[in-house]
């Protein structure tokens, strides 16, 4: 189901996310046809050029978004013979702050200052609530489909004419078809899971629960998580 951005946003109380409502997608990948490739736990991630998360970090999603991803992964395999790959999900507030402290972001302040922002400030958005996921598709040989850009490409300007990652930026027919498949399985997965889903316009890889849901909840800090779920080094170490 496509999120209607014109929907009236209601004022809702701020709630705390229970860690029991976070699903480890690495474990789910043992049961459904999806792959987890947590990009920011690697030194060679293309956006920051340095590792953000601990090397053994896992990818977590809020259970409502996890249901969407599970359905989408099944659709991708059964209807297209493709594998849904997950690059990022939950980012704690501290992980977001660490991203802003990298030299790459300091060299590109417009990523944070642009409207709309290409990189959220700590506590903002769906990622620190486990309610946003970065995804793509792999072919039967495990190679990433051509989506026009790498999944974490950030442009000089967020608008469609200047941003090749934007969903409305002109692309080749092959790229359009690949993005169409990804969009169709994610939106149909949301319908099957009984959830609304927002494909972020500026980033073809980003899908999230709509803003009226996200704004109900406080962002998650490393201190809110048990040590084994922390993205950075456990606080006890």
Key attributes of the depicted protein:
7 strands, five-stranded mixed sheet, two-stranded antiparallel ribbon, single chain, disordered N terminus, globular, Muramoyl-pentapeptide Carboxypeptidase, domain 2, 237 residues, alpha+beta
Give the overall silhouette: globular
Tell me the number of structural domains: 1
The H/E string reads EHEEHEHHHEHEEH
Strand residue content? 5-15%
Describe the model.
With 237 residues, this protein is α+β, with helices and mostly antiparallel strands. The chain has one domain (19-228): Muramoyl-pentapeptide Carboxypeptidase, domain 2 (2-Layer Sandwich), CATH 3.30.1380.10. Helices cover 27% and strands 11% of the residues. The protein has 7 helices and 7 strands. The strands form 2 sheets. A 5-stranded mixed beta sheet has the order 2-4-5-7-6. Strands 1-3 form a two-stranded antiparallel sheet. Strand 6 (198-199) and strand 7 (206-208) form a beta hairpin. The longest helix has 21 residues, at 173-193. The chain is globular, with a radius of gyration of 17 Å. 40% of the residues are buried. Mean pLDDT is 91; it is low at 1-10.
């Amino acid at each position: 189901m496509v999120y209607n951005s014109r929907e009236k946003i209601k004022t809702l109380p701020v709630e705390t996310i229970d860690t029991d409502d976070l699903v480890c997608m690495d474990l789910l990948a043992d049961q459904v046809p999806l792959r987890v490739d947590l990009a920011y736990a690697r030194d060679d991630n293309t956006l920051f050029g340095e590792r953000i998360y601990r090397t053994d970090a896992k990818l977590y999603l809020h259970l409502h978004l996890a249901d969407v991803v599970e359905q989408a992964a099944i659709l991708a395999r059964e209807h297209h013979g493709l594998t849904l790959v997950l690059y990022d999900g939950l980012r704690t507030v501290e992980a977001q702050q660490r991203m802003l402290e990298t030299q790459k972001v300091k060299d590109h302040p417009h990523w944070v200052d642009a409207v709309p922002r290409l990189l959220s400030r700590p506590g903002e958005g769906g990622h620190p609530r486990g309610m946003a996921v970065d995804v793509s598709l792999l072919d039967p040989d495990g190679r990433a489909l051509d989506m026009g850009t790498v999944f974490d490409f950030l442009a000089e300007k967020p608008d469609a004419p200047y941003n090749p990652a934007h969903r409305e930026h002109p692309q080749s027919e092959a790229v359009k078809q690949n993005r169409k498949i990804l969009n169709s399985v994610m939106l149909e997965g949301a319908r099957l899971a009984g959830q609304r889903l927002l494909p972020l316009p500026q980033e073809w890889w980003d899908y999230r629960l709509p803003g009226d849901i996200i704004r109900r909840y406080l962002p998650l800090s490393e201190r809110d998580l048990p040590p084994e779920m922390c993205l950075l080094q456990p606080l006890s170490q």
